[in-house]
Amino acid sequence: MLAAQFDNCRIAVFGAGVMGVDIATMIVSQGISVTVVDVNSAALERAREGIAKRMRHAALAGTVAEGVEPGNVTIAASFSFDSETAAVIEAITERADLKAGLLAEVSAALPAGIPVITNTSGIPIEEMAGWAARPAEVVGVHFMNPAYLIATVEVVRGPSTGAAALDRVLELLARLNRKPVVVRDSPGFVTSRLLHPMLNAAARLVGAGTATAQEVDALMEGCLGHPVGPLRTADLIGLDNLVDSLAALHERTGEESCRPCGVLEEKVRNGHLGRKSGQGFYDYGKEPW
């Protein structure tokens, strides 16, 4: 019954950056079709190849649903909602002004009953709900990077989020073989509130000359069990996304640990954005992820 209600459906993912492409890969790997929407034509050109590359990685990692045909991928500069639309996922850059404009436009055009899911890493869901035509249909789902490999997701219910929208999102996540953990609304929720200041502190240590990126990561991996090290994690997230998320957290919490450090800001100014640009704390050569 659960699977049947999502047969022949389509999910629209707004944002063709690293996170949007990762989320789109996760969706099609579970047999649901996706439309990736972005105003940046260069990002759209990279998106289809990026999804294909990640699908190969997902297959090798064993996270593609068995016995299920992968969903179709559509790349578009705009999207028209119809009876096949099961949900909308907002995965654009972590800037409140851009997210506000998108949520206002999308929610006004969206038929009632279709949840608007935001992948924000730090902006409170209640704040975002205020930008939507129907606040009760806005739900936070913070997918972890890479979304097509990590099954656990942080689901955030804002004060205005309705029970029907939350239930619908949880049903969809079950169909996508995700494991939701529902938390209360707050700036940064749980994962970003813990992770992003730690990444900031790791970068600050490198800037102070206390240790190299490799040394910081080696100690965090070997001594504290971090899977890949904080600075490789930062490169995977995207240093520009990390700076934006930290700035959003600092603005909303006032905590100095969330103020982006000078090393991160300098790397972003120099275009060293992490894995997606080919260089961040590490050099990834000419094949960014």
From TrEMBL:
<protein>
    <submittedName>
        <fullName>3-hydroxyacyl-CoA dehydrogenase family protein</fullName>
        <ecNumber>1.1.1.35</ecNumber>
    </submittedName>
</protein>
<comment type="pathway">
    <text>Lipid metabolism; butanoate metabolism.</text>
</comment>
<dbReference type="InterPro" id="IPR036291">
    <property type="entry name" value="NAD(P)-bd_dom_sf"/>
</dbReference>
<comment type="similarity">
    <text>Belongs to the 3-hydroxyacyl-CoA dehydrogenase family.</text>
</comment>
<dbReference type="InterPro" id="IPR006176">
    <property type="entry name" value="3-OHacyl-CoA_DH_NAD-bd"/>
</dbReference>
<dbReference type="InterPro" id="IPR013328">
    <property type="entry name" value="6PGD_dom2"/>
</dbReference>
<dbReference type="InterPro" id="IPR022694">
    <property type="entry name" value="3-OHacyl-CoA_DH"/>
</dbReference>
<dbReference type="InterPro" id="IPR006108">
    <property type="entry name" value="3HC_DH_C"/>
</dbReference>
<dbReference type="Pfam" id="PF00725">
    <property type="entry name" value="3HCDH"/>
</dbReference>
<keyword id="KW-0560">Oxidoreductase</keyword>
<feature type="domain" description="3-hydroxyacyl-CoA dehydrogenase NAD binding">
    <location>
        <begin position="11"/>
        <end position="185"/>
    </location>
</feature>
<dbReference type="InterPro" id="IPR008927">
    <property type="entry name" value="6-PGluconate_DH-like_C_sf"/>
</dbReference>
<dbReference type="GO" id="GO:0003857">
    <property type="term" value="F:(3S)-3-hydroxyacyl-CoA dehydrogenase (NAD+) activity"/>
</dbReference>
<dbReference type="Pfam" id="PF02737">
    <property type="entry name" value="3HCDH_N"/>
</dbReference>
<feature type="domain" description="3-hydroxyacyl-CoA dehydrogenase C-terminal">
    <location>
        <begin position="188"/>
        <end position="284"/>
    </location>
</feature>
